[in-house]
Structure formats: structure tokens, C-alpha cells
Amino acid sequence: MCVLFFTVGNTPVLVTDCSPDQVSIRGDFNGAQLLCFGAITYPPGTRNRDRADIVVVLKGPTESIVVREKQQIAGIWINAASSEFRSAPGYYAVASSRPIEEIVDDKTADIYELGLDHLQLSPAGTIDSKELGRFTQGLVDLNSRGQLYKTLPESVGIEDSVLYQARIDLPASVPVGEYSAETFLIIDGRVEAAEIKEITIEKIGMGRFITNLSQENGFIYGLLAVLISVILGWAAGYLFRKI
Question: How distant, in Å, are the alpha carbons of 110, 136, 137 from that of 104?
């Protein structure tokens, strides 16, 4: 079967997809890999197709988060200053055919949030720019150590300036929720086309039941947690007495 792609006007067109578009987390989940792939179709007579770059940004779910700074006082670590961000992604990865700084300038990277240094986290309230930068870097460093924030330069392969693919690893601790995989076609530093694919990561089985119970009926969830703790404590004490 032959599939034909057509372009409209003088604008290149992106044909994108991601597999899988739904990731199920079970009790034995230890991570997964997402494949984003597609094709670039160019208008007739395009001469700069060999200078095309692809950037894939996987992001989600957005949540409000408080970042606290710890200080050591009299040998004890305590919470000191803090800052709240209204829209911090629980997971963020950017894969690109070349390092981002070689593809676009800082202004373009800020507009499209291309790279960890260009995330727009929307702080709550007024905060000094230096303080904001410090807390932002703290959040990025924390999530980077947990493999939740990552930059993947030169991880997008482009074949014959037309076909591309990127593989992004999801850690076992990846949060559940709705994600967006946004693919950008960039030529000579300009974003020429962009496409978004929605991806769902969800728990199934007992994990989903527990998560739903904790969110929808916290009282019953708390009672069950206490009951399970009492039973396990009693069982452990009984076994020790028998040994």
C-alpha cells in the first residue's frame, strides 16, 4: 500500500504519532519506553530541508507544588524558605536532533519551553527574580535526580530529512495523568510546524483502586490504612513470640 502526503501552500507539514498512547501501571511496573515518530513533508522546491531539526517535548501532568529549602541550624536540618509553583509538570523530557542551544535562540526556547532552563513554572505570588531562579533550579535538580526531568540531545534520528523517531524512557516513579507529546519542526532556528499527541498514564488493578479510594474517600482510606497497620503489627508480634 502506498501512502501519499500532500502539503498546502509553502509550509512544511508534520505527520506524528506516539506508541503507546496509553501506559498502564501495574504492581510490577518498572518503567516503560515511549516511541514518538513521524514524517516531514515539504513543499515542492524546498531547498533547506537538510537543515531541519526535530524537537519532541513530553510533559505532564501539571500540578501545584511547594519547594522548601532546608538549612542546618545547631546540627539539625529544618525547613527554611519556601516557594510555591502553580503549574509545575510532574514529568518533563525534551528530545532533540541536536543540542537545543544549537537549534534555537533563547527567546524561541522560552516561548516553546524547549529545555530545562526555559520551563515556565508560574510562581504563586511575588518573588524576587534571584530567589525565583534559585527555587526553580532546586526543583529542576530534584526532579532530574529522580529521572522525572531530563534533556536528551541528539536522541532524535532523522532519516533522509523526512522520517524521524525519538525514544523517551519513563521511570517507574512516573506520575499518572494526562501528558502531551509536542513535536516541533525547526528550520534555520524557526519553528515551521508543530503537532501535539495526547498520552495517558494510568494505574490499573489494585493500584488504581487504592489511588481512587484515597482521592475520593479519604476517611475510609485512612481507616483501612490504620486497620492494616494494626493487623500487620499484631502478626509480627505473634510471630516473634513463636520464635
Answer: 10, 22, 22
Q: How far is the C-alpha of 212 from the C-alpha of 199, rounded, in Å?
A: 20
Q: Which amino acid is at 218?
A: G
Q: Parallel, antiparallel, or unpaired for β 156-159 and 163-170?
A: antiparallel
**Per-residue cell: 111:** 516561548
Answer positive or negative: Cα dihedral of 88, 142, 157, 53. Answer: positive
Q: Is the peptide bond before 20 cis (omega within 30 degrees of 0)?
A: yes
The total of other beta-carbon atoms located within 10 Å of residue 24's CB is 16
Length of the chain: 243
Q: How far is the C-alpha of 209 from the C-alpha of 221, rounded, in Å?
A: 11
Prediction pTM value: 0.76
- The residue type found at 163 is L
Spatial neighbors of 64 by CB under 8 A, at least 6 apart, are 84, 85, 86, 87, 88, 124
Q: Contact at 8 Å (CB) between 233 and 55?
A: no
Q: Strands 177-187 and 52-73, how do they pair?
A: antiparallel
Query: Helices marked H in the chain — which ranges?
Result: 100-103, 106-112, 129-145, 206-216, 218-242
Whether 115 contacts 100, CB under 8 Å: yes
Q: Quick one: pLDDT band at residue 29, thresholds 50, 70, 90?
A: confident
pLDDT digits (tens, 9 = 90+) for 162-221: 999 999 999 999 999 999 999 999 999 999 999 999 999 988 755 544 555 455 566 665
Residue 173 to residue 165: CA distance in whole angstroms: 24
